[in-house]
Amino acid sequence: GQGVDEPLSATGFRQADAAGLFLSNVKFTHVFSSDLLRAKQTAAAILGQNRFCKDLEIKYDARLRERKYGVAEGRPLADLKAMAKDAGEQCPSFTPSGGETLDEVRERARDFFEFLCQLAVELEQKEHSKPGAPGRSSGTSGEQFVFPWTNHCSEAEPSSEGGGSSVVLDANILVVSHGAYMRNWIGYFVSDLNCTLPANLTKSQLSSVSPNTGVSHFIIKLGNGNLLKPEITCVCLNQDSHL
Question: Phi and psi of 26, rounded to 5°?
């Protein structure tokens, strides 16, 4: 939850370093993290292993915090399950006293995602306004965005194969957050924004909480800067081959 702001454990630091090595060839343009300590430390560890953007500023945002669990925070998961059972509810949708509802978490996720879309549109507009600026898709740097899961995930991956030039994205954004929050955000992508999912993804995988430092990758297209109808493709979900 939010109320117990503990640092990463020794295992957590090892997992964060492993994620950093896994993503070390990905050139990020922006990094956002929850302002809770465990997420801050994870984001710093990932950037610390990166070949291109060790000095990129990490921006902390309270909208990326874990779901607030009220009276259940700092207590074992078994206690939360017992509270839900006593209330006659299923654990994932149960809201303890003083906690956030799933709708409230989803609203935070929606607000942050719309902020990211606005950021990407403004970047594109700024780029096009430069006199003599080359097209953003004309880059030839094969290492511009090197994603480590290309060979075993969705075919939606930006690739330099065949065309001789890489797809240059307007923004390539790393977001470091928390399990229950991210599950709600992904649910918003799927149910509200009709996100395209990998063909081999099962229903249980879609509803599961990401493992610590699990990596999910989404490609967002905003046709003509249209913030209302983003086209979202999930390349991979809760990828954990680095662990």
Answer: -95, 125
CA-to-CA dists, residue 7 to 10, 36, 40, 149, angstroms:
10, 9, 9, 29
Find out whether 122 is annotated in a ligand binding site.
no
**Known binder of ligand: residue 127?**
no
CATH code of the domain occupying 10-67+101-126+170-239:
3.40.50.1240
Angle at 96 between CA 93 and CA 100, to 5 degrees: 70
pLDDT value at position 213? Answer: 97
Nearest CA-CA partner of 113 in 37, 89, 81, 121: 121
- Binned at pLDDT 50, 70 and 90, residue 224 comes out as confident
Query: Per the structure block, which two tokens stand in for 203?
Result: 């229903």
66 is in an annotated binding site: yes
pLDDT band for position 150 (50/70/90)?
low
The token pair that represents 197 in the structure block: 């999912």
For 11, other C-beta atoms within 10 Å of its C-beta total 9
